[in-house]
Design a protein that fits this description.
Blueprint (H helix, E strand, L loop, with lengths): L1 E5 L14 H4 L2 H5 L2 H10 L7 H12 L4 E7 L5 H10 L1 H8 L8 H8 L3 E2 L8 E2 H5 L5 H10 L3 H9 L9 H4 L7 E5 L10 H8 L6 E4 L13 H18 L1
Helix pairs in contact: 6-10, 7-9
């Protein structure tokens, strides 16, 4: 049995180079081979993109015998909302696509990320990431490592959205989940994407779920203050371990 965990809404697999064909297929196509998915999850530590939460939800719903517990980290549940977020951030995603993959060095990608255009609500013009985060923020190198390991066309698939998201409908999937669930919400004030309204609606489908609301961490749960995230996760995993005794 497994614990399917999606941290920071991000999951998933660390490969020397993640081929785009996995993303160009609908999520449901990839989830039909959960052994491969969970194998990479178990042995590797790299995290990338909010698709991790959606993969984990679909694996848990369709292959419940493989999953003992599910952790979802600030992954937006609603497809309509997710589409609008991706449309808002399209310029940033396409900018990242130019530097993804093994063509550029880790140092080159790190420097390029400092000029990432960040959309700010209420402002017509995006702001460079270095202006918001400062020159020395560790996020730049963390994100550079993620981009270096991914095929640029993965980001094309995210922007095009519809084909990749085929089969993902949380209102149909959550009622199929019976295992323990932990939902980690990033602080909306710090850029968290999962709303209170989505969480409350979701609890009508999975009332057994726990909710951990972060106050000092936004959407990138794994690159900011780690202690509150680790506390929520370890407490949940400890509960799973006790249930096995």
């Amino acid at each position: 049995m497994w614990a399917a965990i999606s941290i920071a809404a991000i999951l998933i697999m660390r490969l020397p180079y993640f081929d785009c064909k996995h993303y160009l297929n609908p999520l449901q196509h990839n989830v039909r081979m959960p052994g491969v998915f969970l194998h990479y999850f178990e042995y590797n530590k790299n995290w990338f993109v909010s698709l991790g939460g959606h993969f984990a939800i679909m694996v848990t719903a369709w292959h419940p015998h493989l999953v003992r517990g599910l952790i979802i980290g600030d992954a937006p549940f609603d497809r309509t909302k997710l589409r609008s977020l991706l449309l808002r951030d399209q310029q940033r995603l396409l900018y990242w696509r130019d530097f993804a993959g093994p063509t550029h060095s880790l140092e080159e990608i790190t420097e390029a990320l400092k000029n990432t255009p960040i959309a700010i609500e209420g402002q017509a013009t995006p702001v460079p990431a270095r202006t918001l985060f400062g020159e020395k923020n560790p996020w730049f190198r963390d994100m550079a490592e993620n981009l270096r390991l991914n095929d640029p066309e993965m980001l094309t698939a995210i922007v095009e959205f519809d084909r990749m998201q085929e089969g993902y409908d949380y209102e149909q999937l959550f009622p199929m989940i019976s295992c323990p669930v932990l939902i980690i919400q990033g602080s909306p004030a710090l850029g968290g994407l999962l709303t209170n309204e989505e969480i409350e609606h979701t609890l009508t489908f999975i009332p057994q779920a726990r909710v951990a609301r972060m106050e000092t961490v936004g959407h990138p749960l794994h690159t900011q203050e780690k202690e509150p995230i680790l506390l929520a996760i370890t407490s949940f995993v400890d509960t799973l371990q006790k249930q096995r005794v």
